Amino acid sequence: MAIRILNVEDYAPSRYVRTRLLQEAGFDVTEASTLAAALDVLQQESISLVMLDMNLPDGTGAELCRRIRKVAELSQLTVLIISATARGELDRLDGVRSGANMYLTEPVPPAQLLSSIEHLLGLTRKAS
Asked: Do you find a cis peptide bond into 57, omega within 30 degrees of 0?
């Protein structure tokens, strides 16, 4: 069974680039551009990891993470928050306090993003 990642990002170019990177690494990726759309996906699909933008048009990544943690069926879901507009330690603290497993600040090099996801999911990279 393929590992499915939900890529929640409102900025289409960033969403596209991250989705392609993850697909090339062998992940099955579903996309959402809003908090509401992400919640819909989570109710309908089996997701292994949610990768959240901190700033969404209808809420924050931290808010979505808190909502995920309150739903019994989703409470153990792995959540990675990525912020391109971190306003210092308060945003990072809000992300961590929301229950996120990891918080990264842009720019995140592709190799770091993939290794962070592999670490969070307990995966080991095969030697090429």
From this structure: no
pLDDT tens-digit readout, 44-70: 999 999 999 988 999 988 999 999 999
Q: How far apart are CA 36 and CA 91, in angstroms?
A: 21
Q: Which two tokens stand for residue 25?
A: 């690494």
92-121 pLDDT, tens digit per residue, is 667 778 899 999 988 899 999 999 999 999
pTM for this entry? 0.90
The identity of residue 121, as a single letter, is L
Do residues 31 and 7 make contact, with C-beta atoms less than 8 angstroms apart? Answer: yes
Sequence ranges of the domains in the chain? 4-121
* Pairing, β 59-60 against β 55-56: antiparallel
Q: Are 36 and 57 in contact (CB under 8 A)?
A: no
> Candidates 3.40.50.10490, 3.40.50.2300, 3.30.70.260, 3.40.525.10; correct CATH number of 4-121?
3.40.50.2300
